[in-house]
Amino acid sequence: MAWDSGQPGNGVNVSPTERDTIAVSEHDQLVDAVLDAAASLILVVDAGGRLVRWNRACDELLDYRQAELEAPFALLDLVPAAERQVAETAMRALLAGQSPVQAEFHWRTRAGDLRLIQWSLTGLSDRHGEITHMVGTGIDVTEARRWVEERVEGEARLRHMADHDALTGLFNRRRFEEELERHIARGRRYGMTGALLMLDLDGFKQVNDNHGHRIGDRVLTAVAAVLRHRLRESDVIARFGGDEFAVLMPVGGATRARELARLLSSAVNSDVGTPVGPLSASVGIAVLDESSTPDDLLSRADDAMYAEKRAPRPAVRHLRSVE
């Protein structure tokens, strides 16, 4: 009987069958080494939902051994109940012939931590076209997604700080003027309506001077809450600084503006308590028209407010636009 040499010069004779077995074994070892060297999560599941193979990255992430999860569909136990349907839908899509399928869901580690995994799932079929196995390649995007969310939240906080008064949470003057300019531009296109109200607290300086800025800040916060509560959702309110507030009433004319001014002034007087007694508020009004500009409106409403403040009796004044 003739024998072939397996490794020339090594002095060992092997049969063709043994040589093929050795080659297959070496090939399997190479595949295992490649899978375990990969940074991505890699797993193979058969059509019955049994885990056939996963790589070292899965071991290290989850702290489970493959043998612990080889029961049919045991991998689904790693997925939170609320997201399990996502994984099941992806598996059904693969079995139906869709490939690749993208899916994203959490895996729960042995320690109970949730890791968000971004999967690309591919089906493997036999010569009859039947799906026999599913291969998943996953990336742990938990930290990346958390960083993105934190960045988005941070940017939102910065935008809020840039647009809002730190004490009252109302819009600041810059943001209010942007809203006013936007409303005027829209009015020129679709029809001008609305009014600007400027409100100033009478005698507020006495609160600060006699009781300190901490008490004054509490009073301003209370005024902001009262004004916000009395306004409609469509109205825009801002603190301009000090004890001065501005309101953009986007819908309505002079009559509605006077009613709103009386309502706000009365609410401040009745609902805001101070150590020096009830507050009163002077309110000036400027009604929008086709010639309105932000600077013009602010100037006219401000003039009307100070005219009311100088008046001997509190009666809201309405300054009409210049024709």
What does this structure look like?
- 44% of the residues lie in helices and 22% in strands.
- The chain has 323 residues and is α+β, with helices and mostly antiparallel strands.
- 26% of the residues are buried.
- The protein has 2 domains: 16-145, PAS domain (Beta-Lactamase); 165-319, 2-Layer Sandwich (Alpha-Beta Plaits), CATH 3.30.70.270.
- It is built from 9 helices and 10 strands.
- The strands form 2 sheets. A 5-stranded antiparallel sheet has the order 2-1-5-4-3. A 5-stranded mixed sheet has the order 7-8-6-9-10, with helices on both faces.
**Strand order in space, largest sheet:** 2-1-5-4-3
Kindly report the name of the CATH homologous superfamily of the largest domain.
Reverse transcriptase/Diguanylate cyclase domain
Number of helix segments? Answer: 9
Structural class call reads alpha+beta
How much beta, percentage-wise? 15-25%
Provide the CATH architecture of the largest domain.
2-Layer Sandwich
List the defining traits of the structure above.
5-stranded mixed beta sheet; 5-stranded antiparallel beta sheet; Beta-Lactamase; 323 residues; disordered N terminus; single chain; alpha+beta; 9 helices; 2 domains; Alpha-Beta Plaits; 22% strand
Characterize this entry briefly:
By secondary structure, the chain is an alpha+beta fold. It is built from nine helices and ten strands.
What topology does this entry show?
Layout: H1 16-37, E1 41-46, E2 51-54, H2 56-62, H3 84-95, E3 101-108, E4 114-125, E5 131-140, H4 142-163, H5 173-190, E6 195-202, H6 204-211, H7 213-230, E7 236-241, E8 244-249, H8 254-271, E9 280-287, H9 294-310, E10 317-319
Parallel strand pairs: 9-10
Antiparallel strand pairs: 1-2, 1-5, 3-4, 4-5, 6-8, 6-9, 7-8
Helix pairs in contact: 6-7, 7-8
